[in-house]
Amino acid sequence: SQQGEEDPQALSIQEGENATMNCSYKTSINNLQWYRQNSGRGLVHLILIRSNEREKHSGRLRVTLDTSKKSSSLLITASRAADTASYFCATAKAAGNKLTFGGGTRVLVKP
Amino acid sequence: DAGVIQSPRHEVTEMGQEVTLRCKPISGHNSLFWYRQTMMRGLELLIYFNNNVPIDDSGMPEDRFSAKMPNASFSTLKIQPSEPRDSAVYFCASSTETKGEQYFGPGTRLTVT
Description:
heterodimer, A: mainly beta
């Protein structure tokens, strides 16, 4: 199975609600990153959290990292229709030199 | 900065033909990555370069695929001969370091008939 696996695979919410998605991984990491992909476009980097960090914020985004559980969560607060996209986590292994992407969570924000 | 530039944006070709995809990374980035994305297999890393040198090509599906980076501002991914199962969106990404945040190009949508 993949190093990073997102859960749920798909999420449908109303505008204004919060959206939470999770990422689990298997081996020790150097950092974990979250990306967004709008339909038909390239991935856009959202946030990077290092293995010695527990929480990071960027605007309406909040990322947590629990290395003991080998998991991370991405919270989008007060969602907007424009947040409709697929969200991917990517892990940089402690012993390695590349990112490994998960399968993504498709988020639909209904106006 | 113009970001990562890929060409062509769309390519339709017949089985057996040679396909060449091109990428110009962001100036100053010394790591370049080629990915393939399909509904069935998700996002797959094909190969990546650091300082123009191929570091890991274990994701290249078979010998029909080859990639080059002759200089810091240009890379190509070639498929020869192409097959229908190569149909996918191919992304190029660049970064200042292999474990850092990556900047993706808009992708090339390849259709092989």
